[in-house]
Amino acid sequence: MRTIECDVVVVGAGPGGSMAAKYCAQGGLDTVMIEKKHEIGAPLRCAEGVSKKWLAEVGIEPDPVWIRADMVGAVIKSPSGYAFKLDESKAGSEVGYVLERHLFDKALARDAVKAGARIMMRTYCTDVIREAGKLVGIRAKSMGEPMEIRAKCIVAADGFESQVGRWAGIDTKLALNDLCSCLQYRMVNCDADMEYCEFIIGRSVAPGGYLWIFPKGGGIANVGIGIMGTMAKSGEAKTYLDKFISDDPRFKKSQAVETVGGFVSTCPGLDCAVDDNIILVGDAARIIDPITGGGICHACRTGMYAGQVLTECAKKGDFSKGALMPYEKMWRDRMEDKLYRNWMAKERLAELDDETIDELVRLISTSDIKEVNVYNLLKVIKEKFPKVVEGFEDLI
Q1: Domain count, the chain
Q2: In DSSP terms, which residues pair with 141 in a beta bridge?
Q3: Band of the pLDDT at 366, cuts 50, 70, 90?
Q4: What whole-number distance in Å separates Cα of residue 60 and Cα of residue 93?
Q5: Cβ atoms of residues 192 and 303 within 8 Å
Q6: Of 26-40, 90-104, 156-170, 249-263, where does mean pLDDT reach its minimum?
Q7: Is residue 322 classed exposed, middle or buried when 0-12, 13-18 and 19+ CB atoms within 10 A define those classes?
Q8: Per-residue pLDDT reduced to its tens digit, 199-214
Q9: pLDDT band at 365 (very low <50, low <70, confident <90, very high)
Q10: Could you give the percent of the chain with pLDDT greater than 90?
Q11: Which helix (H) or strand (E) holds 163?
């Protein structure tokens, strides 16, 4: 059987995997990244919206090649049509670019290669390898050929499914309320405002989640929906999304040219995303914004942190769980409070009826908020609807 030896093997070439591979390679580690698909970034499994503020933090320079649209602002709507429109000066981190995601992912993979990482396409992990109880690499198939990739540490960047984490013995199970059933169409010839992202919330519109319109310019927009797992029946996401589109005159002459569906995790991260000789990043570690389902930023951050910590581990020749724990501290110090706060907010908002959602949006629209983000919205909500934030007031 073919065998490859390296320092680090990264499973998955999404944003988290590519960032981990880049920073590992920059640190002098012999890094191999595998990708099961035939093309990085495709097929699309994303609404393609990102904020702008975190890009510099992880060393990504904005590039017109992968920026499809630069949003002026956002609109939040309630079930009865109450709307709160805000421009980017107030939108804070909730508004930014709409990407061509497949080009964005390819750009990150290119950066990993420039740093010295090796990529193997059409190569998927089939199991982990243990010897004397220790993880020593993965088993894989590359273009149908069985092989082994032996490494000092595994980076599991294999997304929502997170098979590598499970095989390594890490509990990645999710409660049904921490799953979101999603469906999205790419609509063409629509009359939606091409300068504003739109978010529609309410139980009658998207139970336990929200419906979105992310414009891509030229009458094209990603139109999608997410429904909380405990509130979703089979096929229900499609029923709600199709009804919204058929009832909205902006889509009267529009057609879908692409459909994507799947699940998103909406919990505040795993209890621990490391073990001896393995790190989980991004969606695989359940590190994703529970209230928006946004995960690109979190994947890039955790991938960078993983690469930085592995570089230090290599200097000491120690990839044990204890040696990898600085990764846990890094992502938790940067994101844990916000993730937990947004998870609690997600749980509470799912309980509200449409009338209360209408009142919330009216309240927000008349409030003097200098920068609109989840934190500041919750501060306003706390004054009028304290029960919504009960149990996590100290995070607001």
Answers
A1: 1
A2: 124, 146
A3: confident
A4: 16
A5: no
A6: 90-104
A7: exposed
A8: 999 999 999 999 999 9
A9: confident
A10: 78
A11: helix 163-167
What is the crossing angle of helices 101-115 and 15-26, to 10°? 20
Pairing mode, strands 145-150 and 83-87: unpaired
CA atoms of 292 and 226, how far apart (whole Å): 9
Is 96 within a domain?
no
For residues 11 and 154, the answer to whether their CB atoms sit within 8 Å is yes
Task: Please give the pLDDT value at position 162.
Answer: 85
Domain span holding position 126: 2-45+102-174+268-344
Q: Give the three-class secondary structure for 93.
A: helix
Whole-number Å distance between alpha carbons of 93 and 95: 6
Cα 238-242-247 angle, rounded to 5 deg: 155
The verdict on residue 116 lying in a domain is yes
Cα atoms found within 13 Å of the Cα of residue 186, Cβ hemisphere only: 18
Structure tokens at 66: 């992968």
Strand partners, 140: 125, 147
CB neighbourhood size of 320 (10 A): 15
**Residue 272: inside a domain, yes or no?**
yes
User: For residues 338-372, b (16+ Cβ closer than 10 Å) or e, as one string?
Assistant: bbbbbbbbbbbbbebeeebbbebbebbeebebeeb
Q: Is the pLDDT reported for residue 346 higher than 60?
A: yes
Tell whether 73 is covered by a domain.
Answer: no
- Secondary element (H or E) of residue 3: strand 2-5
CATH of the domain at 296: 3.50.50.60
DSSP 243: H
Dihedral angle of Cα 261, 287, 154, 314, to the nearest 10 degrees: 150
